[in-house]
Protein 1
Amino acid sequence: MTWKASIDGQQCMASGMCAGIAPDLFVLDGPHARPLREEIPEDEAALDAADSCPAMAILIRDGEKVVGPRP
């Protein structure tokens, strides 16, 4: 199974938390971060990155269901 990762460029403040936590999934690219690919494997690191984002800019979906950030 795969998840879909997205980062809201309007919210992202380029803290680098996501790239530090999951460098195989996220990268800092100019003024904000971005996922290395839209579809990602189900990975705890992706959820940790979404949970740790200070701007809450990362969204992880499993189909229509939002799985990250976790409540």
Protein 2
Amino acid sequence: MSGSRKMVLGFVAAASMVVAPLLVAAPASAATDYANCTELRADYPHGVGEPGAVDSTSSTPVTNFTVDQALYDANSESDRDGDGIACEKH
């Protein structure tokens, strides 16, 4: 094997050791489980719901809640009326 070919292979090997760690997917961050609606509303003022959720109310329904399935799942215990929206607020 010629010297230049060895040099090229050396560069390729070195580059793969630098680039390979960058290609590893980062672990998915866990959705925050808030202690109560006051804490959740500090970050999501109108609550958080799952896709397709509709606020069950006798007045004007909340439509501007944050849609995020993982976040809703982590806080579903705060969905007191079971409509798929936790801590909804007008």
